[in-house]
Design brief:
Blueprint lengths: L8 E5 L4 H12 L3 E6 L2 H13 L3 E6 L5 H15 L4 E4 L5 E2 L7 H29 L3 E7 L10 H23 L5 E7 L1 E2 L3 H4 L1 E2 L3 E3 L5 E2 L1 H14 L3 E4 L1 H12 L1 H11 L5 E5 L32 E2 L1 H30 L15
Parallel strand pairs: 1-2, 1-4, 2-3, 4-6, 5-9, 6-7, 7-12, 8-11
Antiparallel strand pairs: 10-13, 12-14
Helix pairs in contact: 1-2, 1-7, 3-4, 4-5, 8-9
Bound molecules: NADP nicotinamide-adenine-dinucleotide phosphate (NAP).
């Protein structure tokens, strides 16, 4: 783990609402110059005002992450107005709640274009400026669902898993050219954001996060820590760690548990408003803010867990178990031979 240089200029995609907005504000509060990217101007302007009030600087860029040229142009604009981009955070997402068989191909394409290709476009745009300097950090906002898909959000889960595949390939490519640029994935638990009220929903009940739920500001602090330390990954919150480890150890048990829970896991009892507008193909209306409707259930603090610790723990455990086994075998050998060297039985020749 390396401690990063001071971050002066950073960019966040999906900065008009939810987690992205909280991340932008967290860096703005630390005096950073923040490039704010999303489609909805009202939300972006509101984020900008908050950052300026807290002592940072902000640049509003109305752009769609699904459009690669818009991302390259956005990066160039931030560089020309604010200077070298030290940190780029890919956070923008859309999803659709519904069974795969009820989704249209267009809906699959749109979620993939925004939630997966949006991360690719942002990363390529950042690298265009970071590679010549051989300096910078890119953080990709992931989810426990990048490891463990859940039902009724197939395109979103697939986009998160695809992003992980892309980032892992790219990490090795950067290492191959001895790059000092760091890539970090921050995999989140459930967060109290507007997502659940403006995402397209095919159910007749409102969408809801799977508890425990955390406030976006708690997640933003985990992202600040990721920017400072540049770990390979963070798994944020005990629920994310549990979901990922359970998937690694017993995926078919997890399949059955999720199948039995059905849509109850992802919806609340409140009825959905029929034909309400959503943000799948265009920005949501007005200024959504950072928080969703779960303030009372959401926790203000969360622990970012570095899975390298788990791997180190497992390696130490395996070493200790191996050493104990070797010692036990050696003891058994000594007991079997009465303490002296083992004498082979006499060879009896057959006649
Ligand atoms: N909330 C959770 O429970 C949860 C759990 C795990 C992981 N995450 C991750 O956290 C991140 C943020 O999620 P969230 O819950 O904060 O979502 P959210 O409340 O729905 O906010 C999504 C943000 O993305 C922007 N966006 C959507 N489509 C865009 C596009 N085509 N181009 C540019 N910006 C676009 C939205 O703004 P506009 O509509 O104005 O463009 C908004 O600013 C995502 O990466 C998500 O996967 C969230």
């Amino acid at each position: 783990m390396t401690r990063r240089d001071v971050i002066e200029t950073m960019v966040v995609t999906g900065a008009s609402a939810g987690v992205g907005r909280a991340i932008a504000v967290a860096f703005g509060r630390r005096g950073c110059k923040v490039g704010l990217i999303a489609r909805g101007r009202q939300g972006l302007e509101s984020t900008r005002r908050e950052i300026i009030r807290l002592g940072g600087e902000a640049l509003v860029i109305e752009a769609d992450v699904a459009d690669p040229k818009a991302m390259f142009d956005a990066a160039a604009r931030v560089e020309s107005e604010f200077g070298p981009i030290d940190l780029w955070v890919n956070n923008a997402m859309v999803t659709v709640y519904g069974a795969s068989v009820d989704l249209t191909p267009d809906e699959f394409h749109q979620v993939t274009k925004v939630s997966y290709l949006g991360q690719v476009h942002g990363t390529l745009a950042a690298l265009r400026h970071m590679r010549p300097r051989n300096r910078g950090a890119i953080i990709s906002i992931g989810s426990a669902l990048a490891y463990r898909s859940i039902p009724f959000q197939a395109p979103y889960c697939a986009a998160k898993a695809a992003t992980r595949g892309f980032i892992d390939s790219l990490r090795s490519e950067l290492m191959n050219e001895n790059s000092a640029i760091t890539l970090t994935m921050v995999h989140l638990p459930a967060v109290n954001t507007p997502q659940f009220d403006w995402a397209r929903n095919k159910f007749d009940r409102k969408a809801a996060p799977v508890p425990p739920i955390y406030q976006p500001e708690a997640i933003a602090e985990a992202v600040v820590r990721a920017a400072e330390r540049a770990p390979r990954e963070y798994w944020v919150g005990a629920s994310a760690v549990k979901a990922i480890v359970a998937q690694m150890l017993m995926p078919s048990v997890a399949d059955r548990i999720l199948a039995r829970a059905g849509i109850d896991n992802e919806t609340s009892a409140e009825p959905e408003t029929p034909n309400r507008p959503d943000n799948l193909f265009g920005a949501g209306r007005g200024d959504p803010g950072a928080h969703g409707r779960f303030d009372r259930q959401a926790s203000p603090r969360v622990f970012p867990f570095n899975p390298a610790w788990l791997r180190a723990g497992l390696a130490l455990g395996a070493l200790a178990a191996g050493a104990a086994l070797l010692t036990a075998a050696a003891r058994a050998e000594r007991r079997g031979s009465g303490g002296g060297p083992a004498i082979p039985p006499p060879v009896v020749a057959r006649r």
